[in-house]
Every structure is written in structure tokens, then in C-alpha cells.
Amino acid sequence: MSEASLLATNRKALRDYQVLESFESGIMLVGTEIKAMRNRRVSLDDSFARIDEGEVFLYNMHVSPYEQGGRFNVEPKRQRKLLLHRQQIDRLEGLLSRRGLTLIPLRLYLKHGLAKVDLAVCKGKRQYEKRDVLRKRELDREVRRTFKAYRRKEPR
Q1: For residue 108, what is the domain's CATH number?
Q2: What is the pLDDT of residues 117-145, one digit of tens each?
Q3: Cα–Cα distance, 58 to 50 (Å, whole number)
Q4: Which among 82, 102, 106, 109 has the fewest CB atoms less than 10 Å away?
Q5: Which structural domain, as residue segments, surrounds residue 135?
């Protein structure tokens, strides 16, 4: 996927959740929402998805009103229906029946002119797991820094 088609990412999701499985989903938009998304006026922070009566809905995704939209603009944080096949929804219901799992959108992008959401089944990380990831990242950075300094000192 090209970088130009990526509209928004949920960076907090990868920090706070462990991704178990992901699905590509279409998103039902109304009014001028697609125009605002193409201008990258969208945020996935604190958004989540839920299955209600056999349909999947996305909550708390903020799409800023399109400047030239006028009366065609809609509420920025309204719930939006996600478009999935019945088998995918049934699979999600089976996965979410386990305790502690939730649906989190990871990325929002355009594919062939249509808005798509990368939806993931996630399990929340504990505080100590987050600290372990930060500690490992810091150690890796220190090792790279040491090797880089060592390579510079070698005579050629």
C-alpha cells in the first residue's frame, strides 16, 4: 500500500493492545465525510468498534467537518457502520465472546477510491508489559549505538 493512500493511524493501539487478528473492512460514509478524509481531517484516537444486532459499528472516530460542506456536513463523532461479510462478523462474534478482547481500528486508508479500516481483535496490555516493551526498545537502541561507535573506530 502506498503512503499516499494512508489517511490515519491509531498509534496508541499498538502501544496499549496486543493485536491477535486483523480484518479489512469498508466503512459507510454520508455527506462530505470522504472529502474531509481525503484532506486527512480524521482521527482514530480513542475509537473502537462494537457488534450490535449482527452489525459492526465504529465509535469515536472523529471526522472534522468539510469546510465547503455547508448543510451536508454531519456530526464529527457519529457512529459509522462497518461493512463486513456475514462470515467475518460471525468470526468476530466468536472471538469477542472471550473475556478481555476488543475491536480496535488500526489504520484508515483509501483503496481504489474507497475508505477502508484495518480492524483488529486486540487484548489490552498490562502496565508491566508496556514497561517491558519500552525497556527492550531502549536496550536495542543502546546496542545499535554501541556497534555504530565501534565500527567508526576500526581502521580501514
Answers
A1: 2.40.280.10
A2: 999 999 988 887 778 888 888 999 988 88
A3: 7
A4: 102
A5: 126-156
